[in-house]
Specification:
Number of strands: 8
Strand content: 15-25%
Distance between the termini: 11 Å
Low-confidence stretches: none
Largest sheet: 8 strands, parallel, barrel
Number of helices: 11
Number of domains: 1
Mean pLDDT: 93
CATH architecture: Alpha-Beta Barrel
Shape: globular
CATH topology: TIM Barrel
Order of helices and strands: EHEHHEHEHEHHEHEHEHH
Radius of gyration: 17 Å
Structural class: alpha/beta
CATH superfamily: Aldolase class I
Length: 229
C-alpha cells in the first residue's frame, strides 16, 4: 500500500485554515486536527473539514481511566473522523474499552495508539522515570497495543523498521517527525525524510510546518508527494 501524506493543520483560525487548504484540495486527502482547533471550535470542526473535502485525522491523544476515555469516544458519535488517537500508556484495559466504544459510536474510525512522542529523547524519558531508550519503550507499548486489538500506531519514523518487523503489515503506522532534507527540525528529536519513511514502511506520514510555512504550499506538497511515489 502506498504511503499517504497527512497535513497537520496547526493553525489558530479555522477560516484561515480553510483558505490555506483550498488550493490543496486534490493534492492531498488527509488533514490532521489537534487539540488547538478542537478545543477552540468544538466537535463540529470535524464536520466542517470533512465537508470541505478532506479526510480527518483527529489527534486528541486521549489518556484517562478506561471509562472516561470510552465515554469521550462515545461523545464523538457519528463524527466523520477517519482516525483518532489515544495514548497506549493508558494501558490494555483502556485501549480495549476505547475500541469497544469506537466500534459502537465511530465504526468507520481507526483508533491509533500513541507510543512515545517524537519530541522525547533518552534524557526526557529518563526525567519522567522511564529507564528505557525511546526505541525500546516504543516496542513495549506497540506490543501492548497490538495485544489489546489496536489496528494503528503513531511512532517516530526511526522505529518503523523494528515495528514492521514484528507487527507485520496489518497495523497502520503513522509517523510524525517527517522533515524534507532542507527543512528545520523545529521541536522534533527523531526525524526522517518522506522518502526514507515510505521505504521503511510508513502507512501515513504527518507533515506540518514544511508545508504550512512554505512560500508555495502547493509546490511543497507536490514535492513531498513525488518523494512518496
Amino acid at each position: 500500500m502506498a504511503t499517504e501524506l497527512i497535513l497537520a493543520v496547526d493553525l489558530d483560525d479555522k477560516d484561515v485554515a480553510k483558505s490555506f487548504l483550498a488550493p490543496l484540495r486534490g493534492e492531498l486527502s488527509w488533514v490532521k486536527l489537534g487539540l488547538q482547533m478542537f478545543l477552540k471550535y468544538g466537535p463540529g470542526i470535524v464536520d466542517e473539514f470533512a465537508d470541505a473535502g478532506f479526510k480527518v485525522f483527529l489527534d486528541l491523544k486521549l489518556h484517562d481511566i478506561p471509562n472516561t476515555v470510552a465515554s469521550a469516544i462515545k461523545s464523538l458519535r457519528g463524527r466523520p473522523c477517519g482516525m483518532l488517537t489515544i495514548h497506549t500508556l493508558g494501558g490494555a484495559e483502556m485501549m480495549r474499552r476505547a475500541l469497544d466504544a469506537a466500534e459502537d459510536a465511530l465504526p468507520q474510525t481507526r483508533l491509533l495508539g500513541v507510543t512515545v512522542l517524537t519530541s522525547m529523547n533518552d534524557a526526557q524519558l529518563a526525567g519522567i522515570g522511564v529507564p528505557r531508550a525511546p526505541m525500546a519503550q516504543v516496542e513495549v507499548l506497540a506490543k501492548l497495543a497490538a495485544e489489546a486489538g489496536m489496528r494503528g500506531l503513531v511512532c517516530s519514523p526511526l522505529e518503523l523498521p523494528s515495528l514492521r518487523g514484528f507487527l507485520g503489515e496489518e497495523i497502520a503506522l503513522v509517523t510524525p517527525g517527517i522533515r524534507p532534507k532542507t527543512a528545520s527540525l523545529d521541536d522534533q528529536s527523531r526525524v526522517m525524510t518522506p522518502a526514507d519513511a515510505a521505504a521503511a514502511g510508513a502507512s501515513y506520514i504527518v507533515v506540518g510546518r514544511p508545508i504550512l510555512k512554505a512560500d508555495d504550499p502547493v509546490a511543497a506538497t507536490r514535492a513531498i508527494q513525488r518523494e512518496l511515489a
